[in-house]
Amino acid sequence: MRSRAGDVLIRGLIAAGVVAVTLLPGAGTGAWGEAGARNPVGGESDQGGGESGNPVGGESGNPVGGESDQGERVLFRFADERITESSGLALSPSHDDVYYTHNDSSAGPVFFAVGGDGRTRATFTLRGADARDWEAMAASKDPKTGRGVLWFADIGDNFEGAWPDISVYKVQEPASLRDATLPAVRYRFRYEDGGHNAEGLMVHPRTGRLHIVSKEFSGSIYQAPRRLRADRVNILRRIGPAPVMATDAAYAPDGSSFVVRTYFSATVYSAPGEQLAKVDMPQLEQAESIAYTADGTALLTGTEGSRSPVYRVPLPEEVLRAAAPEPTPAASGTASEAPGGGAEGSGERVEAEPAQDDAGVPFSAVALWLAVAVGATGVIVFIARRAR
After folding, report:
1. Which strand (E) or helix (H) includes residue 168?
2. What percent of the chain has pLDDT over 90?
3. What total number of domains does the chain contain?
4. Could you tell me which residues are beta bridge partners of residue 172?
């Protein structure tokens, strides 16, 4: 027999869960309450045709989908039947209307050059590379030569410490879009504070400096050394928090901003560390990738799945207004990197994150998650007692 007090408790738990779901950021809109107003990235670095596959896409340049009320549209769909787990996305620095992508895991060290019509232009294999869990890629230009550079991040670690280190591969962008096997330089990394799962890779377009964004409820942004060493493990140092469960990240073409993607939305930050805007994203089955358009006025985002779409999402006006001219702030010194870091005149700055809990997750998000858990517990107890 249930007591009156027990019934009241159960109903209270259920009510808490309902309120939590109702108030949860993005409920009904697809936007999650990511980490708040300031997000740091900084430093400097020296780092600098036949068609393959079975294309079944449409004509070049014709978008597959229409515009929504927010201006988003399907730019193209991957036509190649081999592309089933598109996990990274980058625009070619050298070839017009060419996009690069790769599958998630168990597909080998392979990436695809895809045209604006969704058809595969070429397939490339990295010689001597592993593909344990490729989660992200980025494209940049060598600051010394101006040649395109592609980066592939083997950084997935669902057990958060199962691997002794993670890897990022650097490849010179092919001059010709023909199937080929390419030499790659492997850089090994280790986090200064233990293992993490990560899916975001950013490369600053002017300095070539790498940043990795972890995928956790208490996510972080990690900065690579200015000069990468291929003969030893490079240490990644935490420089600030990241949004909850980040799935990708990218720098704007001019380095004036960067974006962090989650399953539900995207947040744009200025490189000096100020949040510029949250951007509503299309509802995707499993949002995995994000990049800027070549002119920096819109974002591209993709998902996993066969014939998966790539959407173009215009940036809000406040982001475009803030993009230029780019300031050149002095280093703040509040969270500067280890000796040998920093970059005078680079337009980048490392800053501490104020007014947040110690893991970079807003307190409101933590409270709501706890409320959801309490509500779920109430529902389970209620059902169990009703079944008696």
Report:
1. strand 166-172
2. 56
3. 1
4. 149
Q: What is the C-alpha to C-alpha distance for residues 40 and 235, in angstroms, rounded to an integer?
A: 18
Ramachandran region, residue 104 (left: φ > 0; alpha: ψ -120 to 50; beta: rest): alpha
379 is written with which tokens? 């529902």
Helix 4-23 with 363-386: angle, nearest 10 deg: 140
pLDDT band of residue 375 (cuts 50, 70, 90) is low
Distance (Å, whole) CA 109 – CA 295: 29
User: By residue range, what is the domain housing residue 329?
Assistant: 73-361
Beta bridge partners of 313: 299
Task: Tell me how far apart the alpha carbons of residues 224 and 58 are, in angstroms, rounded to a whole number.
Answer: 41
Q: Is residue 191 part of a domain?
A: yes
**Which phi and psi (to 5°) does residue 364 adopt?**
-60, -40
CATH number at residue 246: 2.120.10.30
Task: Count the helix, strand and coil residues of the chain and give each as a percent rounded to the nearest 5.
Answer: 15, 30, 55
Residue 98 domain-assigned?
yes
Asked if residue 110 has pLDDT above 90, the reply is: yes
Is 26 inside any structural domain? no
Q: Which range has the worst mean pLDDT, 51-55, 278-282, 315-319?
A: 51-55
Residue in this structure with the two tokens 């060493």, named with its chain if needed:
229
Q: Average the pLDDT over 113-131 and give the result.
A: 97
Whether the model pTM is above 0.70: yes
pLDDT digits over 325-345, tens only? Answer: 554 433 333 333 332 334 333
For residue 222, the one-letter residue type is Y
Q: How many CA atoms are closer than 13 Å to the CA of 107, on its beta-carbon side?
A: 22
Determine what percent of the chain is predicted with pLDDT higher than 70. 64
Reduced 3-state DSSP string for 274-334:
EEEEEEECCCCCCEEEEEECCCCCEEEEEECCCCCEEEEEECCHHHHHHCCCCCCCCCCCC
- Pairing type for strands 185-191 and 234-241 reads parallel
Which pLDDT score, from 0 to 100, does residue 62 have? 38
Phi-psi region of 284 (alpha: psi -120 to 50; beta: other; left: phi over 0): beta
Query: Is the backbone peptide bond immediately before 325 cis, with ω within 30 degrees of 0?
Result: yes
For 4-8, 164-168, 248-252, which range has the lowest pLDDT when averaged over its residues?
4-8
Q: Is residue 120 part of a domain?
A: yes
